[in-house]
Write the C-alpha coordinates for this entry.
Amino acid sequence: MTTDLRAVINLDLPGATISRHIYGHFAEHLGRCIYGGFFVGEDSPIPNEGGIRLDVVDALRAIRIPNLRWPGGCFADDYHWKDGIGPRDQRPRMVNSHWGDVVEDNSFGTHEFLHLCELLNADPYVNGNVGSGTVREMSEWVEYLTRGDDSPMAALRRRNGRDEPWKVPFFGIGNEPWGCGGNMTADHYKDLARQYSTYIRDHGGNTVYKIAAGANSDDYSWTETLMASLACNDCSGGLSKSFQAVSMHYYTMSGAWDDKGDATRFTEDEWYTTLRRARHIEELVRRHSAVMDVHDPQRTVGLVVDEWGTWWNVEEGTNPGFLYQQNTLRDALVASTHFDVFHAFAHRVTMANIAQTVNVLQAMILTDPDSGALVLTPTYHVFEMNTGHHDAASLEVALAGDVPTRDVDGTVLPLVSASASTKDGNALVSLSNLDAAQAHTVVLDLRGGQVAGFSARVLTGGALQAHNTPDRPTAVVPVSHDGIRTHARGLEVDLPAHSYVTVSLELA
Ligand code: AHR
Protein backbone atom coordinates (compact mmCIF):
# COMPACT_ATOMS: atom_id res chain seq x y z
CA MET A 1 0.00 0.00 0.00
CA THR A 2 1.49 3.40 -0.97
CA THR A 3 1.50 6.06 1.73
CA ASP A 4 2.52 9.25 -0.04
CA LEU A 5 0.04 9.57 -2.84
CA ARG A 6 -1.79 12.87 -2.94
CA ALA A 7 -4.56 14.26 -5.10
CA VAL A 8 -4.29 18.06 -4.90
CA ILE A 9 -7.58 19.84 -5.55
CA ASN A 10 -8.21 23.58 -5.42
CA LEU A 11 -11.84 23.75 -4.42
CA ASP A 12 -12.02 27.48 -5.16
CA LEU A 13 -10.78 27.27 -8.76
CA PRO A 14 -13.72 25.91 -10.77
CA GLY A 15 -13.02 25.30 -14.43
CA ALA A 16 -15.32 24.67 -17.38
CA THR A 17 -18.75 23.15 -16.87
CA ILE A 18 -18.88 19.40 -17.45
CA SER A 19 -21.82 19.07 -19.81
CA ARG A 20 -24.26 16.40 -18.65
CA HIS A 21 -24.25 15.37 -22.31
CA ILE A 22 -20.89 13.63 -21.90
CA TYR A 23 -23.01 11.03 -20.08
CA GLY A 24 -24.92 10.46 -23.32
CA HIS A 25 -25.92 7.15 -24.87
CA PHE A 26 -26.23 5.51 -28.25
CA ALA A 27 -28.88 3.11 -29.58
CA GLU A 28 -28.48 1.58 -33.01
CA HIS A 29 -30.60 -0.86 -34.96
CA LEU A 30 -28.05 -3.53 -34.17
CA GLY A 31 -28.60 -6.95 -32.64
CA ARG A 32 -30.88 -6.74 -29.60
CA CYS A 33 -30.33 -3.07 -28.78
CA ILE A 34 -33.61 -1.75 -30.20
CA TYR A 35 -35.61 -4.94 -30.69
CA GLY A 36 -35.72 -6.91 -27.42
CA GLY A 37 -33.69 -4.25 -25.64
CA PHE A 38 -35.70 -1.05 -25.78
CA PHE A 39 -38.65 -2.24 -27.82
CA VAL A 40 -40.60 -5.43 -27.16
CA GLY A 41 -43.86 -4.54 -28.89
CA GLU A 42 -47.23 -3.79 -27.35
CA ASP A 43 -48.23 -7.47 -27.05
CA SER A 44 -45.22 -8.42 -24.93
CA PRO A 45 -45.80 -9.77 -21.41
CA ILE A 46 -42.97 -7.44 -20.36
CA PRO A 47 -44.53 -4.23 -19.00
CA ASN A 48 -44.30 -1.64 -21.75
CA GLU A 49 -45.74 1.59 -23.03
CA GLY A 50 -46.33 1.61 -26.76
CA GLY A 51 -43.98 -1.38 -26.97
CA ILE A 52 -41.15 0.32 -25.04
CA ARG A 53 -39.83 -1.65 -22.05
CA LEU A 54 -40.58 0.27 -18.87
CA ASP A 55 -37.92 -1.45 -16.74
CA VAL A 56 -35.26 -0.24 -19.19
CA VAL A 57 -36.74 3.25 -19.09
CA ASP A 58 -36.74 3.29 -15.27
CA ALA A 59 -33.13 2.09 -15.09
CA LEU A 60 -31.93 4.78 -17.52
CA ARG A 61 -33.91 7.53 -15.81
CA ALA A 62 -32.13 6.56 -12.60
CA ILE A 63 -28.79 7.49 -14.18
CA ARG A 64 -30.34 10.66 -15.62
CA ILE A 65 -29.68 9.74 -19.24
CA PRO A 66 -29.23 13.17 -20.87
CA ASN A 67 -29.47 12.25 -24.56
CA LEU A 68 -29.82 9.29 -26.88
CA ARG A 69 -28.19 8.97 -30.32
CA TRP A 70 -30.17 7.00 -32.94
CA PRO A 71 -30.57 5.20 -35.43
CA GLY A 72 -26.83 4.48 -35.90
CA GLY A 73 -23.87 4.11 -36.34
CA CYS A 74 -23.38 2.42 -39.67
CA PHE A 75 -27.12 1.76 -39.81
CA ALA A 76 -27.80 5.51 -40.03
CA ASP A 77 -26.32 5.75 -43.52
CA ASP A 78 -28.57 2.94 -44.74
CA TYR A 79 -31.70 4.28 -43.06
CA HIS A 80 -34.49 6.02 -44.93
CA TRP A 81 -36.70 7.59 -42.32
CA LYS A 82 -39.93 7.57 -44.33
CA ASP A 83 -39.84 3.75 -44.16
CA GLY A 84 -40.29 4.06 -40.39
CA ILE A 85 -43.46 6.14 -40.14
CA GLY A 86 -47.16 5.40 -40.59
CA PRO A 87 -49.05 2.22 -39.64
CA ARG A 88 -46.53 -0.39 -38.55
CA ASP A 89 -48.00 -3.20 -40.59
CA GLN A 90 -47.61 -1.16 -43.76
CA ARG A 91 -44.00 -0.11 -43.29
CA PRO A 92 -41.59 -1.40 -45.92
CA ARG A 93 -38.87 -3.81 -44.85
CA MET A 94 -35.16 -3.49 -45.48
CA VAL A 95 -31.99 -5.49 -45.01
CA ASN A 96 -29.75 -4.48 -42.12
CA SER A 97 -26.65 -5.32 -44.09
CA HIS A 98 -24.14 -4.07 -41.54
CA TRP A 99 -25.49 -5.98 -38.60
CA GLY A 100 -26.29 -9.64 -39.13
CA ASP A 101 -27.81 -9.20 -42.59
CA VAL A 102 -31.22 -9.52 -40.94
CA VAL A 103 -34.51 -8.11 -42.23
CA GLU A 104 -35.55 -4.93 -40.44
CA ASP A 105 -39.31 -4.39 -40.35
CA ASN A 106 -39.08 -0.72 -39.40
CA SER A 107 -41.56 -1.18 -36.56
CA PHE A 108 -39.37 1.09 -34.43
CA GLY A 109 -39.14 4.38 -36.30
CA THR A 110 -39.26 8.13 -35.77
CA HIS A 111 -42.38 8.26 -33.58
CA GLU A 112 -41.25 5.34 -31.44
CA PHE A 113 -37.81 6.89 -30.93
CA LEU A 114 -39.18 10.27 -29.94
CA HIS A 115 -41.67 8.60 -27.61
CA LEU A 116 -38.77 6.71 -26.03
CA CYS A 117 -36.89 9.99 -25.50
CA GLU A 118 -39.95 11.51 -23.86
CA LEU A 119 -40.25 8.54 -21.49
CA LEU A 120 -36.52 8.80 -20.70
CA ASN A 121 -36.65 12.58 -20.36
CA ALA A 122 -33.60 12.57 -22.65
CA ASP A 123 -32.74 14.87 -25.55
CA PRO A 124 -32.93 13.19 -28.96
CA TYR A 125 -29.74 13.08 -31.02
CA VAL A 126 -30.86 12.03 -34.50
CA ASN A 127 -28.15 10.87 -36.90
CA GLY A 128 -28.96 11.63 -40.54
CA ASN A 129 -28.06 9.65 -43.65
CA VAL A 130 -25.36 11.14 -45.88
CA GLY A 131 -23.93 7.87 -47.26
CA SER A 132 -27.01 6.67 -49.16
CA GLY A 133 -29.56 9.40 -48.50
CA THR A 134 -30.28 12.73 -50.09
CA VAL A 135 -30.18 16.34 -49.00
CA ARG A 136 -33.94 16.54 -49.48
CA GLU A 137 -34.54 13.46 -47.34
CA MET A 138 -32.53 14.91 -44.47
CA SER A 139 -34.10 18.33 -44.81
CA GLU A 140 -37.61 16.84 -44.77
CA TRP A 141 -36.81 14.72 -41.73
CA VAL A 142 -35.86 17.82 -39.74
CA GLU A 143 -39.03 19.56 -40.96
CA TYR A 144 -41.14 16.52 -40.01
CA LEU A 145 -39.62 16.41 -36.56
CA THR A 146 -39.57 20.04 -35.59
CA ARG A 147 -41.99 22.19 -37.61
CA GLY A 148 -45.21 23.39 -36.03
CA ASP A 149 -47.32 24.93 -38.81
CA ASP A 150 -49.07 23.29 -41.76
CA SER A 151 -45.94 22.67 -43.87
CA PRO A 152 -46.04 19.46 -45.92
CA MET A 153 -43.90 17.47 -43.48
CA ALA A 154 -45.66 18.85 -40.38
CA ALA A 155 -48.98 17.84 -41.98
CA LEU A 156 -47.62 14.35 -42.68
CA ARG A 157 -46.56 14.03 -39.05
CA ARG A 158 -50.06 15.02 -37.94
CA ARG A 159 -51.60 12.42 -40.22
CA ASN A 160 -49.39 9.91 -38.40
CA GLY A 161 -50.84 10.94 -35.07
CA ARG A 162 -48.49 13.56 -33.67
CA ASP A 163 -49.75 17.11 -33.53
CA GLU A 164 -46.98 18.96 -31.72
CA PRO A 165 -43.47 19.09 -33.14
CA TRP A 166 -40.70 17.58 -31.06
CA LYS A 167 -37.61 19.39 -29.87
CA VAL A 168 -34.56 17.85 -31.54
CA PRO A 169 -31.49 19.69 -30.27
CA PHE A 170 -28.82 17.40 -31.77
CA PHE A 171 -28.44 16.22 -35.36
CA GLY A 172 -25.57 14.24 -36.88
CA ILE A 173 -24.49 14.78 -40.48
CA GLY A 174 -23.76 11.17 -41.41
CA ASN A 175 -21.64 8.64 -39.55
CA GLU A 176 -18.11 7.38 -40.16
CA PRO A 177 -17.98 8.69 -43.74
CA TRP A 178 -14.39 7.41 -43.87
CA GLY A 179 -15.78 3.85 -43.58
CA CYS A 180 -19.27 2.36 -43.49
CA GLY A 181 -20.80 5.79 -44.12
CA GLY A 182 -19.54 6.03 -47.70
CA ASN A 183 -15.77 5.41 -47.80
CA MET A 184 -15.12 9.07 -48.49
CA THR A 185 -12.04 11.19 -48.21
CA ALA A 186 -12.09 14.00 -45.65
CA ASP A 187 -11.98 16.48 -48.49
CA HIS A 188 -15.08 15.07 -50.12
CA TYR A 189 -16.99 14.77 -46.86
CA LYS A 190 -16.23 18.30 -45.68
CA ASP A 191 -18.03 19.69 -48.74
CA LEU A 192 -20.97 17.35 -48.21
CA ALA A 193 -21.19 18.37 -44.55
CA ARG A 194 -21.50 22.04 -45.56
CA GLN A 195 -24.04 21.20 -48.25
CA TYR A 196 -26.25 19.01 -46.05
CA SER A 197 -26.06 21.37 -43.11
CA THR A 198 -27.43 24.19 -45.26
CA TYR A 199 -30.73 22.33 -45.40
CA ILE A 200 -30.85 21.24 -41.76
CA ARG A 201 -32.95 24.20 -40.73
CA ASP A 202 -34.03 25.67 -37.43
CA HIS A 203 -37.83 25.55 -37.52
CA GLY A 204 -39.89 27.52 -35.02
CA GLY A 205 -38.17 27.50 -31.65
CA ASN A 206 -35.99 24.49 -32.39
CA THR A 207 -32.26 25.18 -32.69
CA VAL A 208 -30.20 22.32 -34.07
CA TYR A 209 -26.65 21.67 -32.84
CA LYS A 210 -25.17 20.07 -35.97
CA ILE A 211 -22.44 17.49 -35.53
CA ALA A 212 -20.12 16.77 -38.45
CA ALA A 213 -18.97 13.16 -38.65
CA GLY A 214 -15.41 13.15 -37.43
CA ALA A 215 -12.29 11.13 -37.12
CA ASN A 216 -11.55 7.53 -36.51
CA SER A 217 -9.39 7.49 -33.41
CA ASP A 218 -6.05 9.24 -34.19
CA ASP A 219 -6.88 10.58 -37.65
CA TYR A 220 -6.00 14.17 -36.74
CA SER A 221 -5.90 15.22 -40.38
CA TRP A 222 -9.65 14.49 -40.64
CA THR A 223 -10.28 16.95 -37.81
CA GLU A 224 -7.91 19.43 -39.44
CA THR A 225 -9.81 19.24 -42.74
CA LEU A 226 -13.19 19.75 -41.08
CA MET A 227 -12.01 22.62 -38.89
CA ALA A 228 -10.24 24.37 -41.79
CA SER A 229 -13.48 24.15 -43.78
CA LEU A 230 -15.19 26.39 -41.21
CA ALA A 231 -12.89 29.33 -41.98
CA CYS A 232 -14.95 32.32 -43.09
CA ASN A 233 -13.77 35.91 -43.40
CA ASP A 234 -17.26 37.41 -43.27
CA CYS A 235 -18.59 35.37 -40.34
CA SER A 236 -18.66 36.58 -36.76
CA GLY A 237 -15.80 34.92 -34.89
CA GLY A 238 -14.23 34.04 -38.24
CA LEU A 239 -16.01 30.67 -38.44
CA SER A 240 -19.00 29.62 -40.50
CA LYS A 241 -21.88 28.00 -38.62
CA SER A 242 -22.08 24.96 -40.92
CA PHE A 243 -21.70 22.72 -37.92
CA GLN A 244 -21.27 23.33 -34.22
CA ALA A 245 -19.24 20.23 -33.41
CA VAL A 246 -17.05 17.54 -34.90
CA SER A 247 -17.16 13.99 -33.61
CA MET A 248 -14.59 11.28 -33.10
CA HIS A 249 -14.87 7.55 -32.40
CA TYR A 250 -12.56 5.40 -30.33
CA TYR A 251 -13.04 1.83 -29.12
CA THR A 252 -11.00 -0.01 -26.48
CA MET A 253 -9.99 -3.66 -26.85
CA SER A 254 -7.13 -5.76 -25.53
CA GLY A 255 -6.36 -7.47 -28.85
CA ALA A 256 -6.67 -6.53 -32.52
CA TRP A 257 -9.74 -6.06 -34.73
CA ASP A 258 -9.78 -9.70 -35.83
CA ASP A 259 -9.42 -10.99 -32.25
CA LYS A 260 -10.43 -8.28 -29.82
CA GLY A 261 -10.16 -10.30 -26.63
CA ASP A 262 -12.73 -11.99 -24.46
CA ALA A 263 -15.13 -9.99 -22.31
CA THR A 264 -14.89 -12.17 -19.19
CA ARG A 265 -11.99 -14.59 -19.69
CA PHE A 266 -8.87 -12.47 -19.60
CA THR A 267 -5.49 -12.46 -17.92
CA GLU A 268 -3.98 -9.84 -15.66
CA ASP A 269 -1.80 -8.73 -18.60
CA GLU A 270 -4.92 -8.19 -20.71
CA TRP A 271 -6.45 -6.20 -17.85
CA TYR A 272 -3.51 -3.80 -17.98
CA THR A 273 -3.34 -3.65 -21.78
CA THR A 274 -7.03 -2.76 -21.84
CA LEU A 275 -6.69 0.00 -19.27
CA ARG A 276 -3.62 1.41 -21.00
CA ARG A 277 -5.60 1.57 -24.22
CA ALA A 278 -8.52 3.16 -22.42
CA ARG A 279 -6.12 5.78 -21.09
CA HIS A 280 -5.13 6.52 -24.70
CA ILE A 281 -8.34 8.55 -24.92
CA GLU A 282 -6.42 11.31 -23.10
CA GLU A 283 -3.90 11.64 -25.94
CA LEU A 284 -6.66 11.48 -28.54
CA VAL A 285 -8.79 14.17 -26.92
CA ARG A 286 -5.77 16.36 -26.22
CA ARG A 287 -4.46 16.17 -29.79
CA HIS A 288 -7.83 16.57 -31.53
CA SER A 289 -8.46 19.54 -29.22
CA ALA A 290 -5.08 21.02 -30.12
CA VAL A 291 -5.96 20.82 -33.83
CA MET A 292 -9.28 22.51 -33.08
CA ASP A 293 -7.60 25.22 -30.97
CA VAL A 294 -5.63 26.38 -34.00
CA HIS A 295 -8.80 27.17 -35.95
CA ASP A 296 -11.07 27.92 -33.03
CA PRO A 297 -9.10 29.47 -30.17
CA GLN A 298 -12.34 30.70 -28.58
CA ARG A 299 -13.49 27.06 -28.32
CA THR A 300 -16.89 27.59 -29.84
CA VAL A 301 -16.86 24.26 -31.72
CA GLY A 302 -17.45 21.14 -29.67
CA LEU A 303 -15.66 17.81 -29.76
CA VAL A 304 -18.28 15.05 -29.55
CA VAL A 305 -17.00 11.56 -28.74
CA ASP A 306 -20.18 9.93 -29.96
CA GLU A 307 -18.91 6.37 -29.97
CA TRP A 308 -16.60 5.01 -27.29
CA GLY A 309 -16.25 2.00 -25.03
CA THR A 310 -15.03 -1.57 -25.06
CA TRP A 311 -15.42 -3.90 -28.01
CA TRP A 312 -14.83 -7.61 -27.26
CA ASN A 313 -15.27 -10.79 -29.26
CA VAL A 314 -18.98 -11.58 -29.32
CA GLU A 315 -20.25 -13.93 -26.65
CA GLU A 316 -20.03 -17.56 -27.76
CA GLY A 317 -23.29 -18.89 -29.18
CA THR A 318 -24.61 -15.45 -30.15
CA ASN A 319 -24.98 -13.99 -33.63
CA PRO A 320 -21.56 -12.55 -34.62
CA GLY A 321 -23.31 -9.60 -36.26
CA PHE A 322 -25.14 -8.66 -33.06
CA LEU A 323 -22.10 -7.58 -30.98
CA TYR A 324 -23.45 -8.92 -27.70
CA GLN A 325 -20.84 -9.00 -24.92
CA GLN A 326 -20.67 -9.29 -21.14
CA ASN A 327 -19.39 -6.44 -19.02
CA THR A 328 -17.03 -6.77 -16.03
CA LEU A 329 -15.33 -4.61 -13.48
CA ARG A 330 -12.69 -4.00 -16.17
CA ASP A 331 -15.32 -2.31 -18.36
CA ALA A 332 -16.36 -0.19 -15.38
CA LEU A 333 -12.81 1.12 -15.00
CA VAL A 334 -12.55 1.76 -18.74
CA ALA A 335 -15.61 3.97 -18.30
CA SER A 336 -14.41 5.76 -15.16
CA THR A 337 -11.04 6.61 -16.73
CA HIS A 338 -12.73 7.93 -19.88
CA PHE A 339 -14.82 10.21 -17.70
CA ASP A 340 -11.71 11.52 -15.93
CA VAL A 341 -10.46 12.65 -19.34
CA PHE A 342 -13.79 14.10 -20.48
CA HIS A 343 -14.01 16.06 -17.20
CA ALA A 344 -10.50 17.43 -17.65
CA PHE A 345 -11.35 18.52 -21.21
CA ALA A 346 -14.79 19.88 -20.38
CA HIS A 347 -13.80 23.09 -22.19
CA ARG A 348 -13.81 21.19 -25.51
CA VAL A 349 -15.72 17.92 -25.08
CA THR A 350 -19.38 18.90 -25.24
CA MET A 351 -20.89 15.45 -25.60
CA ALA A 352 -19.97 11.77 -25.51
CA ASN A 353 -22.07 8.68 -26.20
CA ILE A 354 -21.01 5.27 -24.97
CA ALA A 355 -21.70 2.41 -27.40
CA GLN A 356 -24.30 1.07 -26.86
CA THR A 357 -27.04 1.31 -24.23
CA VAL A 358 -28.66 -2.16 -24.21
CA ASN A 359 -27.30 -5.58 -25.26
CA VAL A 360 -24.60 -4.23 -27.62
CA LEU A 361 -20.89 -3.60 -26.86
CA GLN A 362 -20.29 -1.78 -23.53
CA ALA A 363 -23.92 -1.76 -22.49
CA MET A 364 -25.57 -0.33 -19.39
CA ILE A 365 -28.21 -3.04 -19.46
CA LEU A 366 -28.28 -6.66 -20.60
CA THR A 367 -31.58 -8.43 -21.15
CA ASP A 368 -32.04 -12.17 -21.33
CA PRO A 369 -33.52 -13.13 -24.72
CA ASP A 370 -35.57 -15.97 -23.21
CA SER A 371 -36.75 -14.83 -19.79
CA GLY A 372 -36.50 -11.11 -20.52
CA ALA A 373 -34.64 -10.63 -17.19
CA LEU A 374 -32.78 -7.35 -16.94
CA VAL A 375 -29.26 -7.00 -15.54
CA LEU A 376 -27.46 -3.74 -14.75
CA THR A 377 -23.79 -3.91 -15.68
CA PRO A 378 -20.79 -2.62 -13.69
CA THR A 379 -20.55 0.17 -16.29
CA TYR A 380 -24.11 1.23 -15.45
CA HIS A 381 -23.04 1.70 -11.84
CA VAL A 382 -20.20 4.05 -12.83
CA PHE A 383 -22.72 6.20 -14.67
CA GLU A 384 -24.94 6.19 -11.59
CA MET A 385 -22.06 7.05 -9.23
CA ASN A 386 -21.11 9.96 -11.49
CA THR A 387 -24.46 11.74 -11.78
CA GLY A 388 -23.10 14.42 -9.42
CA HIS A 389 -20.66 15.47 -12.18
CA HIS A 390 -23.50 16.40 -14.57
CA ASP A 391 -23.32 20.13 -15.31
CA ALA A 392 -20.87 20.67 -12.45
CA ALA A 393 -17.73 22.81 -12.75
CA SER A 394 -14.63 20.74 -13.41
CA LEU A 395 -11.90 20.91 -10.75
CA GLU A 396 -8.35 20.15 -11.73
CA VAL A 397 -6.83 17.19 -9.87
CA ALA A 398 -3.03 16.98 -9.67
CA LEU A 399 -1.71 13.62 -8.55
CA ALA A 400 1.50 14.11 -6.58
CA GLY A 401 3.94 12.09 -4.50
CA ASP A 402 4.27 8.40 -4.90
CA VAL A 403 1.93 7.72 -7.83
CA PRO A 404 1.92 3.98 -8.52
CA THR A 405 2.68 3.09 -12.14
CA ARG A 406 3.22 0.03 -14.25
CA ASP A 407 5.07 -0.51 -17.48
CA VAL A 408 2.45 -1.80 -19.92
CA ASP A 409 3.62 -2.74 -23.41
CA GLY A 410 6.41 -0.14 -23.18
CA THR A 411 4.20 2.65 -21.83
CA VAL A 412 4.00 3.93 -18.27
CA LEU A 413 0.44 3.57 -17.00
CA PRO A 414 -0.44 5.52 -13.82
CA LEU A 415 -2.43 3.09 -11.72
CA VAL A 416 -4.59 5.76 -10.11
CA SER A 417 -6.83 8.01 -12.16
CA ALA A 418 -8.88 10.87 -10.74
CA SER A 419 -11.16 13.79 -11.52
CA ALA A 420 -13.39 16.14 -9.55
CA SER A 421 -16.14 18.69 -9.91
CA THR A 422 -18.14 21.12 -7.81
CA LYS A 423 -21.76 22.20 -7.89
CA ASP A 424 -24.25 23.77 -5.46
CA GLY A 425 -21.86 23.85 -2.51
CA ASN A 426 -20.82 20.23 -2.95
CA ALA A 427 -17.91 18.48 -4.64
CA LEU A 428 -17.53 15.00 -6.09
CA VAL A 429 -14.16 13.27 -6.44
CA SER A 430 -13.73 10.18 -8.63
CA LEU A 431 -10.85 7.80 -7.93
CA SER A 432 -10.04 4.71 -10.00
CA ASN A 433 -7.52 2.17 -8.75
CA LEU A 434 -6.38 0.28 -11.83
CA ASP A 435 -3.97 -1.87 -9.84
CA ALA A 436 -5.10 -5.46 -10.27
CA ALA A 437 -3.61 -6.63 -6.99
CA GLN A 438 -2.65 -3.78 -4.68
CA ALA A 439 -4.74 -1.41 -2.60
CA HIS A 440 -3.55 2.20 -2.41
CA THR A 441 -4.29 5.06 -0.08
CA VAL A 442 -4.66 8.56 -1.43
CA VAL A 443 -4.65 11.79 0.51
CA LEU A 444 -7.12 14.31 -0.85
CA ASP A 445 -5.13 17.52 -0.42
CA LEU A 446 -8.05 19.92 -0.41
CA ARG A 447 -7.22 23.59 -0.78
CA GLY A 448 -9.32 26.72 -1.01
CA GLY A 449 -12.34 25.39 0.86
CA GLN A 450 -13.59 23.76 4.05
CA VAL A 451 -15.25 20.37 4.20
CA ALA A 452 -18.35 20.20 6.39
CA GLY A 453 -19.21 16.59 5.65
CA PHE A 454 -18.09 13.67 3.52
CA SER A 455 -19.07 10.17 2.44
CA ALA A 456 -17.69 7.62 0.01
CA ARG A 457 -18.89 4.74 -2.14
CA VAL A 458 -16.93 1.93 -3.71
CA LEU A 459 -17.49 -0.34 -6.71
CA THR A 460 -15.35 -3.46 -6.81
CA GLY A 461 -15.62 -7.22 -7.01
CA GLY A 462 -13.98 -10.40 -5.83
CA ALA A 463 -12.14 -10.82 -9.13
CA LEU A 464 -11.06 -8.68 -12.06
CA GLN A 465 -13.59 -10.60 -14.14
CA ALA A 466 -16.50 -10.01 -11.74
CA HIS A 467 -19.77 -9.29 -13.53
CA ASN A 468 -23.52 -9.40 -13.06
CA THR A 469 -25.85 -12.05 -14.44
CA PRO A 470 -29.57 -12.82 -14.02
CA ASP A 471 -28.55 -15.36 -11.34
CA ARG A 472 -26.14 -12.95 -9.60
CA PRO A 473 -27.38 -9.48 -10.51
CA THR A 474 -25.58 -7.76 -7.62
CA ALA A 475 -22.11 -9.31 -7.86
CA VAL A 476 -20.76 -5.83 -8.74
CA VAL A 477 -22.74 -2.98 -7.20
CA PRO A 478 -21.66 0.17 -5.38
CA VAL A 479 -21.68 0.08 -1.59
CA SER A 480 -20.95 2.61 1.10
CA HIS A 481 -17.19 2.84 1.72
CA ASP A 482 -15.86 3.31 5.24
CA GLY A 483 -12.20 3.54 4.19
CA ILE A 484 -12.17 7.32 4.50
CA ARG A 485 -10.94 9.57 7.33
CA THR A 486 -9.93 13.11 8.03
CA HIS A 487 -6.28 14.04 7.46
CA ALA A 488 -4.23 17.15 8.15
CA ARG A 489 -4.45 18.05 4.45
CA GLY A 490 -8.09 17.09 4.00
CA LEU A 491 -9.12 13.45 3.77
CA GLU A 492 -7.44 10.10 3.41
CA VAL A 493 -9.15 7.49 1.24
CA ASP A 494 -8.38 3.79 0.87
CA LEU A 495 -8.70 2.47 -2.65
CA PRO A 496 -9.11 -1.31 -2.67
CA ALA A 497 -7.36 -3.16 -5.50
CA HIS A 498 -9.27 -2.91 -8.79
CA SER A 499 -11.89 -0.50 -7.56
CA TYR A 500 -13.76 2.68 -8.34
CA VAL A 501 -14.41 5.06 -5.43
CA THR A 502 -16.40 8.29 -5.34
CA VAL A 503 -16.11 10.79 -2.51
CA SER A 504 -18.92 13.28 -1.94
CA LEU A 505 -17.97 16.45 -0.12
CA GLU A 506 -20.28 18.93 1.51
CA LEU A 507 -18.47 22.26 1.48
CA ALA A 508 -18.78 24.73 4.36
O1 AHR B 1 -21.11 0.77 -32.52
C1 AHR B 1 -20.94 -0.18 -33.55
C2 AHR B 1 -20.43 0.45 -34.83
O2 AHR B 1 -19.14 0.93 -34.62
C3 AHR B 1 -21.18 1.65 -35.35
O3 AHR B 1 -22.30 1.29 -36.09
C4 AHR B 1 -20.17 2.31 -36.22
O4 AHR B 1 -20.38 3.69 -36.34
C5 AHR B 1 -18.85 1.95 -35.56
O5 AHR B 1 -17.92 1.50 -36.45
User: Anything to note?
Assistant: The chain has a mean pLDDT of 97. The pocket of alpha-L-arabinofuranose is lined by residues 28, 72-74, 175-176, 307, 355-356, 361 (CB under 6 Å). The chain has two domains: 5-10+395-507, 20-142+151-156+168-189+207-390. Residues 400 and 456 are 21 Å apart (CA to CA).
